[in-house]
Amino acid sequence: MRPAWLLGLPVALAACAPLEPSAAGRDVRIVTSDPGGTCRHLGDVTGSRGNFLIGGFIPDATLETGARNDLKTRAAALGGNVVVLLTQRGVQSGSFDGTDGGYLRQTGVTLTGSVYRCPGAGA
Questions:
Q1: DSSP state string for 20-43
Q2: Which CATH number fits domain 5-117: 3.10.590.10, 3.40.640.10, 1.10.287.110, 3.30.110.70?
Q3: 64-79 per-position pLDDT tens digit
Q4: DSSP string, 59-121
Q5: Which of 11, 22, 38, 55 is the most buried (most CB within 10 A)?
Q6: What is the pLDDT of residues 2-47, one digit of tens each?
């Protein structure tokens, strides 16, 4: 009989992999300034990756890439091809233990942006 914790191992390992964008999301560009007057605003989206439970075990770069890819996928679902990044937040979790001082680590990343459909800007 195998130990019960082995059943959770594939799930835990999958959580460490970066979230991939959808096929349409791969063509979405993220920018930091207004895309111009020829673009049509479609709405706002939020992309995130990580949580207090598993986020501490995932490298920061993977959390950031996952949040960015989630943002792109959500923008593509609205029909957009450009996202103007509005906010980016790192979520930190930790604990205080009187014996060793505790810890604080990044456990998630959240990005919010405005979605636009711009002619000639990708898909």
A1: PPPTTGGG-EEESS---TTSEEEE
A2: 3.30.110.70
A3: 888 899 999 999 999 9
A4: -HHHHHHHHHHHHHHHHHHTT-SEEEEEEEEEEEEEE--TTT--EEEEEEEEEEEEEEE-TTS
A5: 55
A6: 565 545 544 444 444 556 667 777 899 999 999 988 999 999 999 9
